[in-house]
Amino acid sequence: MNQTNTQVQMRKGLLEYGVLHIISRGEVYTSDLIDELTQAKLIGIEGALYPLLNRLNSAELVTYRWEESEAGPPRKYFSITDKGKASLKNLADTWKALVLSISQITKKKHQSTSITA
């Protein structure tokens, strides 16, 4: 099994949770979202983010507004919806349960499986 692929898939699985969490803190500009996710090593290329933002918008978990910019093209700012807040809470609960489950597994000591007669 390719460990790098497994790590990429794990990050992809957490990307929605991370994105919703960042947006839940307040309205956020796309490039700021990309910067934070890149620093956290959840995305390596920004192209991975746009399809997710479109899905979140279609699912009515986030909304956006356009704002004119003096320095270039208009900017898209994202904010979380009430439905998105509920989804974020569910993801947070799932994350806590997963961390607990993995902690239980990884904290167990190796058990000897030898059988004596």
Can you give keywords for this protein?
Arc Repressor Mutant, subunit A, alpha+beta, elongated, three-stranded antiparallel β-sheet, 117 residues, single chain
Q: How confident is the prediction overall: mean pLDDT?
A: 89
Beta-strand content estimate = 15-25%
Give the quaternary arrangement of the chains: single chain
CATH topology: Arc Repressor Mutant, subunit A
**Domain tally:** 1
Which residues sit in consecutive blocks of at least 5 with pLDDT less than 50?
Answer: none
How many DSSP H or I helices? 4
State the name of the first-level CATH class. Mainly Alpha
Structural write-up:
58% of the residues lie in helices and 16% in strands. By secondary structure, the chain is α+β, with helices and mostly antiparallel strands. The protein has one domain (3-93): Arc Repressor Mutant, subunit A, CATH 1.10.10. The protein has a three-stranded antiparallel beta sheet with strand order 1-3-2. Helix 1 packs across helix 4 (82-107).
